[in-house]
Amino acid sequence: MSARQLEEHYALGIYPRRGITLVRGSGALVWDDAGTEYLDCATGVGVANLGHAHPAVAAAITGQAAQLITCPGIFYHHSRGRLMEKLVQLAPAGLERVFLCNSGTEAVEAAIKFACLTTGRTGLVSAMRGFHGRTLGALSVTHKYRDAFEPLLPDCRFVPLNNSEKLDAAVDQSTAAVILEPIQGEGGVRPADPDFLSCARRLCSERGALLIIDEVQTGFCRTGSFFACDQLSLAPDLMCLAKGIAGGVPMGAVLASSQVQATLGSHGSTFGGNPLACAAALAAIETMETEQLAERAATLGAYFEQRFCAALPARVREVRRVGLMIGIELKEKATPCLKALAEQEHILALPAGSTVIRLLPPLLISEEQLDHLVAALQRVLAT
């Protein structure tokens, strides 16, 4: 049987399938089993910041796999230690310690536990339209996808993004943490106002809560700086990372300030910080630094916006962009446009809510490929 037949027969029906079997990738391009070439602006939902099959990451994985693949946290390993050091060096000031795991939702779960342990409280405050993961703790602070699984964590409150007055009313002496995305990804590529984030920082400091910033999608040069926090002069107590951290290898991380408590045995991860993922992450981060991908994301994002908005289709309501994190809000449902992009133009993109086309291209995408993307979008949105 084909890959499609096998998955349709055996897999639980969780994912909305696109009907494409991907077999190979290089840079910003992927190919299906019929040899059709696609420009990948989905990048594994924002994972492949370096594109596909980057030689530095491939070499690091190959070399490490030949030496040692697994090493639990009860033993030391040089790649793990070097990666922790590098993350702290890159992180906003005050984040001094690291917990490594396997995904963004695991990072959020760990951050919630650390916040509750540190404060002795259970209350959590997050933003409407926010997305922090699908495991039960992360889902508790996610505004969508939760109804079928309630009751979840009991003391979770949601406020409108960028409404400081509602945030002020929600944070009190029972609040363990406020968790926010600097730019809501699943929620429509909606940036948080700097004043709103500053208000969250002030309220947490005044009322004894911790500020968790979820940079799972915005981290690792996507927004034009290594972390979105870098553009906001924001000092979180905990920062959650994943997606682009390891060039496509599954990995997540929590960075924590010195005030965060994580006692012996309070958390753990069998595969977290394994040598294979750490080697991939070190290679990916070194490439991001060497090739100045933060600056490249800022430049190419502005290039895309200028070209696309020069002849903005009438079906577009708004374009929201930070670096190469792009949301095109339509005046109609986005799904037919996404389908047309894939089938007619051979471009892979994502939704972000029902009316938003989300583009997360590799940061190594070329201007010529962006020109092709702009032309394809204009053709699809003109029909």
Write the layout of secondary structure elements.
Layout: H1 3-10, E1 22-26, E2 29-32, E3 37-40, H2 43-46, H3 55-65, H4 78-90, E4 95-101, H5 104-119, E5 123-127, H6 136-140, E6 156-159, H7 164-170, E7 175-180, E8 183-184, E9 190-191, H8 194-207, E10 210-214, E11 238-241, E12 252-257, H9 275-290, H10 293-309, E13 316-322, E14 325-330, H11 335-345, E15 347-348, E16 350-351, E17 356-359, H12 367-382
Parallel strand pairs: 3-15, 5-6, 5-7, 7-10, 10-11
Antiparallel strand pairs: 1-2, 2-3, 4-12, 8-9, 11-12, 13-14, 14-17, 16-17
Report on the architecture of this protein.
The protein has 383 residues and is of the alpha/beta class. 36% of the residues lie in helices and 20% in strands. It folds into 2 domains: 3-54 and 292-382, Alpha-Beta Complex (Aspartate Aminotransferase, domain 1); 57-290, Aspartate Aminotransferase, domain 2. The protein has helices at residues 3-10, 43-46, 55-65, 78-90, 104-119, 136-140, 164-170, 194-207, 275-290, 293-309, 335-345, 367-382; strands spanning 22-26, 29-32, 37-40, 95-101, 123-127, 156-159, 175-180, 183-184, 190-191, 210-214, 238-241, 252-257, 316-322, 325-330, 347-348, 350-351, 356-359. The protein has a 7-stranded mixed sheet with strand order 4-12-11-10-7-5-6, with helices on both faces. It has a 4-stranded mixed sheet with strand order 1-2-3-15. A 4-stranded antiparallel sheet has the order 13-14-17-16, covered by helices on one side.
